[in-house]
Structures are given as structure tokens and as C-alpha cells.
Amino acid sequence: MDENKKLNFNPHDHVLVPKHTKISEEEKQKILQQYNVSLKQLPKILRLDPALQNIEVQKGDLIKIERKSPTTNKAVVYRVVV
Asked: pLDDT tens digits for 38-54?
């Protein structure tokens, strides 16, 4: 997908797309310390992923993804922008 091309719709409006939030540098360090992991150990997400189109991200940013869950009400996962 060409970086300059924009989608004709906003993926965030779709019911199946979970909420994506960019984490601050300070919170990122707390999360890495809390889970005792490095950025290399976390799952990846592409900078050009359609779910990130309205968020200004750079390589190495941490994205918080909040999904609805039938058992825990909300599941939170983190991904590193590559």
C-alpha cells in the first residue's frame, strides 16, 4: 500500500476494529518494566496498518489495543510499531 494513499473509509468506525492508542514514552517504560519485557519481545504492527492511519506513529512506538472480550469484558494487548 502506498504511504500517500488514504482509505476511503475510517477503519475505526468498523465494529470489528478494536481501539488503538499510542502510549506515551513514560507509560511505555512503565509497561516494559511491569511485564519485564523488551520491545523486541512484543508483537509487531506495521506503521502503515490501516488501524493506525489517524494516529501519528513512528518506528519503536508502543500501541495499546483494547478489544472487547466475553470473559474479561476488555482485553488489552500491546504492539510495537515497525
From this structure: 999 999 999 998 888 88
